[in-house]
Amino acid sequence: MKIPILNINQFKESASINDVYVNTFSNHIQINKNLINKPHSHNFYLCVLFTEGTGTHEIDFNSYTIKPGMVFFLKPGQTHFWKFKTAPEGFIFFHSQEFYDLKFLEHTLFSFPFFYSYQNPPVLELDSQKNYELQLKFLEVYKEYSQRNLLRELKIVNLLNNIYIELTRIYTLNIDLEKLSSSNYPNILATLENLINTNFYNEKFPKFYADKLNITTKHLNRVVKKTINKTTSQLISERIILEAKRLIVHSNGNLADTAFTLDFSDYAYFSKFFKSKTGITPLEFKKRYLMKY
Fold first, then answer.
1. What is the pTM of this model?
2. Contact indicator for 243, 254 with CB cutoff of 8 Å
3. How does pLDDT run across 94-148, given as a tens digit for each residue?
4. Chain mean position to CA 213
5. Residue 14 reports pLDDT greater than 50
6. Structural domain of 30
7. Coil, helix or strand at residue 90
8. Which of 1, 54, 132, 246 is the most exposed place for a label (fewest CB within 10 A)?
9. How far apart are CA 193 and CA 200, in angstroms?
């Protein structure tokens, strides 16, 4: 099974604004149940606040608890799947990068820590007071989206920006802000991750990425170490493993095909690499994952 990549246009309602979508969560899953009833990814940025319901949210093979007060963030390309125990409610919005960046030319989505790196947790838990305050902000953007007032698009993008700012302040309460604002390191990290996403099939060594960024391998490792306490090689390996997991459980090919797709010389080498990073073989991973569903 190939992972569906959902386009923002698939969620359009009549007379909606290009490149943005806002809805209550219960209505969203009802009208789009045929699109989101299995693991999928998107070509847009997504944010959801849960006000009711329980369950699990799987993002790139990591499971997170769904409960009131949980906020989730998704970047383009991430695979995810909802599994609910009790009926969910809340608010959801998503938009293209262009919808935001064209309105804020000197301030991009990468300024927000939950979007600038795939390494940062895609989840935030709000206390009861912040949950109430954010619900009001999500409700306001939903009402604006549902109406046809003058300068509607401009107000929506400003409301979304305000939500992102408030969530960033909560998200960074226990984070060293120096890592976020004192240098250009976050921008280098974001560019590195995009380069890895594009080239990891064939380029598996840090020097290639350092050359692309016009910096030394040593400096690149310094950037990665300071921002997320990892090495460039770890980032590359993690991206390979993530893609391997996606192919193992969502493609129609066999495990040897997965090894070939990821440019390994043979399945034995791929299996050894996979087990060294995950502790289990590709076949064991496939069996365990399929047992969950």
1. 0.81
2. no
3. 999 888 887 776 677 877 888 877 788 999 999 999 999 999 999 999 999 999 8
4. 23
5. no
6. 5-171
7. strand
8. 1
9. 10
